[in-house]
């Protein structure tokens, strides 16, 4: 199976690098200094327990790869449109496309661009980021992939990809209900990213403090309520299940959005808390915790604002 990974960052780099290290036929579509480093030195993959460098193929010219069997999209949500336009040469009538991005609208963008039959469902649980060009670092032990066809079928393409992941020692699960699994991930993500970003702390201090813990619980609860109102089969108790899951995480575990905030990058909040707030308004479910997160992060959503010029009175 020939695989192209568009976006070689925390997620694309970790999962793509693991596949490449196990001998899978992987090519990264990357750009800038990161691309140069991948070409010159390979992909360095760091974690608390591991430091390995994997030689990888990488390009900024998808046309040079030609059609592949599977395209994995792993760019930030604000880059989706540009990325999908650029990968047209990778997609033939028998190519499958899968997104490891966050949110519940990511697969609609793939369907619109390539047709529903091409789209394989997927999501991942991991904390990983680019720490310098060519270097991807994972925090904590969590690194899980969930894949599935939207009709629940166990197709050849699904089995082949899952088999490659297992050979690469990636913790992969095949879900018979990938749409629901995507919403379940969304519940966790909206809460974790909202709380870690507004509190500006990783999960350890947030879960230990009663008020920030209550904020986290409220965010989980609102996404569950909105999902249920839209007919997603999530139990109300799933919110407390996610809170209990947070108690199992490494104290330093954080969200990709809080990392973006700390770096002054753009934020995915409009696709996360913004979607919960919008869908909540549509179906009459109040979302005060998500609205608070959106208000608190509003000035950072397009990247850190310029430092305010404060006039210093002359002495
Ligand atoms: N990081 C995490 O722990 C997790 C992230 N996710 C989700 O996965 C998605 C990716 O996140 P993450 O891995 O953190 O993102 P990163 O920013 O680490 O990586 C994305 C990479 O894609 C590059 N890129 C963007 N557009 C293109 C393009 N058209 N062609 C080639 N390269 C491109 C970016 O380059 P440049 O830097 O130049 O923009 C960057 O190197 C997001 O939706 C995120 O929410 C899901 C689970 C966990
Ligand atoms: C919540 C988490 C860490 C789980 O993978 C995530 O998806 C993100 O921060 O982007």
Automatic annotation (TrEMBL):
<comment type="pathway">
    <text>Cofactor biosynthesis; (R)-pantothenate biosynthesis; (R)-pantoate from 3-methyl-2-oxobutanoate: step 2/2.</text>
</comment>
<dbReference type="GO" id="GO:0008677">
    <property type="term" value="F:2-dehydropantoate 2-reductase activity"/>
</dbReference>
<comment type="similarity">
    <text>Belongs to the ketopantoate reductase family.</text>
</comment>
<keyword id="KW-0566">Pantothenate biosynthesis</keyword>
<dbReference type="InterPro" id="IPR013752">
    <property type="entry name" value="KPA_reductase"/>
</dbReference>
<comment type="function">
    <text>Catalyzes the NADPH-dependent reduction of ketopantoate into pantoic acid.</text>
</comment>
<keyword id="KW-0521">NADP</keyword>
<dbReference type="InterPro" id="IPR008927">
    <property type="entry name" value="6-PGluconate_DH-like_C_sf"/>
</dbReference>
<dbReference type="Pfam" id="PF08546">
    <property type="entry name" value="ApbA_C"/>
</dbReference>
<dbReference type="GO" id="GO:0005737">
    <property type="term" value="C:cytoplasm"/>
</dbReference>
<feature type="domain" description="Ketopantoate reductase N-terminal">
    <location>
        <begin position="3"/>
        <end position="151"/>
    </location>
</feature>
<dbReference type="InterPro" id="IPR036291">
    <property type="entry name" value="NAD(P)-bd_dom_sf"/>
</dbReference>
<protein>
    <recommendedName>
        <fullName>2-dehydropantoate 2-reductase</fullName>
        <ecNumber>1.1.1.169</ecNumber>
    </recommendedName>
</protein>
<dbReference type="GO" id="GO:0015940">
    <property type="term" value="P:pantothenate biosynthetic process"/>
</dbReference>
<feature type="domain" description="Ketopantoate reductase C-terminal">
    <location>
        <begin position="177"/>
        <end position="298"/>
    </location>
</feature>
<keyword id="KW-0560">Oxidoreductase</keyword>
<dbReference type="InterPro" id="IPR051402">
    <property type="entry name" value="KPR-Related"/>
</dbReference>
<dbReference type="Pfam" id="PF02558">
    <property type="entry name" value="ApbA"/>
</dbReference>
<dbReference type="InterPro" id="IPR013328">
    <property type="entry name" value="6PGD_dom2"/>
</dbReference>
<dbReference type="InterPro" id="IPR003710">
    <property type="entry name" value="ApbA"/>
</dbReference>
<dbReference type="InterPro" id="IPR013332">
    <property type="entry name" value="KPR_N"/>
</dbReference>
């Amino acid at each position: 199976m020939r695989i192209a990974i568009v976006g070689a960052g925390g997620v694309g780099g970790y999962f793509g690098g693991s596949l490449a290290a196990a001998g899978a036929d992987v090519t990264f579509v990357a750009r800038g200094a990161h691309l140069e480093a991948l070409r010159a030195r390979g992909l360095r993959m760091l974690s608390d327990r591991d430091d390995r460098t994997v030689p990888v193929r990488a390009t900024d010219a998808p046309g040079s790869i030609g059609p592949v069997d599977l395209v994995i999209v792993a760019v930030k949500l604000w880059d989706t449109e540009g990325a999908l336009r650029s990968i047209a040469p990778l997609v033939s009538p028998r190519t499958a496309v899968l997104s490891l991005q966050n949110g519940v609208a990511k697969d609609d963008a793939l369907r619109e661009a390539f047709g529903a039959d091409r789209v394989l469902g997927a999501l991942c649980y991991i904390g990983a980021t680019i720490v310098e060009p060519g270097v991807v670092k994972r925090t904590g032990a969590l690194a899980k992939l969930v894949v599935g066809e939207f009709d629940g079928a166990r197709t050849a393409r699904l089995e082949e990809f899952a088999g490659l992941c297992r050979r690469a020692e990636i913790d992969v699960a095949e879900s018979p209900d990938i749409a629901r699994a995507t919403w379940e991930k969304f519940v966790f993500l909206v809460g974790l990213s909202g709380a870690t970003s507004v509190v500006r702390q990783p999960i350890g201090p947030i879960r230990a403090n009663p008020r920030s813990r209550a904020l986290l619980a409220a965010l989980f609860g609102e996404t569950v309520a909105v999902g249920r109102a839209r007919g997603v089969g999530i139990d109300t108790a799933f919110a407390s299940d996610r809170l209990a899951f947070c108690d199992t995480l490494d104290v330093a575990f954080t969200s990709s959005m809080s990392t973006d905030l700390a770096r002054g990058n753009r934020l995915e909040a409009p696709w996360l808390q913004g979607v919960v707030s919008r869908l909540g308004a549509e179906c009459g479910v109040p979302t005060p915790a998500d609205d608070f997160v959106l208000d608190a992060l509003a000035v950072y959503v397009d990247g850190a604002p310029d430092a305010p010029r404060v006039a210093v009175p002359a002495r």
